[in-house]
Amino acid sequence: VQLVESGGGVVQPGGSLRLSCVASGFIFSDERMSWVRQAPGMAPEWVSGINRRSTSSYYADSVKGRFTISRDIAKNTVHLQMNNLKVEDAAVYYCNAISDYDNYWGQGTQVTVSS
């Protein structure tokens, strides 16, 4: 089982990044997918989630209207489009696949927002 995140980097406030998470080793369409972030010294924060069929997506209040989650079943990939980034969005972003039986995590990708 693998979840491999990519797309992190350094961006100025107001900028955009698109995170990707490629899944392998399990049935991607069976899992609900989420993004969770953790800033240094802080507890993990759930950011966004999407259901198995991509019919519903969910966002933390702190990112609502700025972030968009999507999934490509054919490519076993989930994306997080992040626009109008703020300094407080800086964190390591983790991809999470979860079902009634599974709970998988990626290694994380660093997002730095700095002028």
Describe this structure in words.
The structure is a single chain. Helices cover 0% and strands 52% of the residues. With 115 residues, the chain is an all-beta fold. The strands form two sheets. Strands 2, 4, 5, 6, 9, 10 and 11 form a seven-stranded mixed sheet that branches. It has a four-stranded antiparallel sheet with strand order 1-3-8-7, with no helix packed on it. Strand 5 (45-50) and strand 6 form a beta hairpin. The chain is globular, with a radius of gyration of 13 Å. The termini are far apart.
What does the average pLDDT come to?
Answer: 97
Radius of gyration: 13 Å
Shape: globular
Helix content: under 10%
- List segments where confidence is low: pLDDT < 50 over at least 5 consecutive residues: none
Order of helices and strands: EEEEEEEEEEE
Count helical runs: 0
What multimeric state do the chains show? Answer: single chain
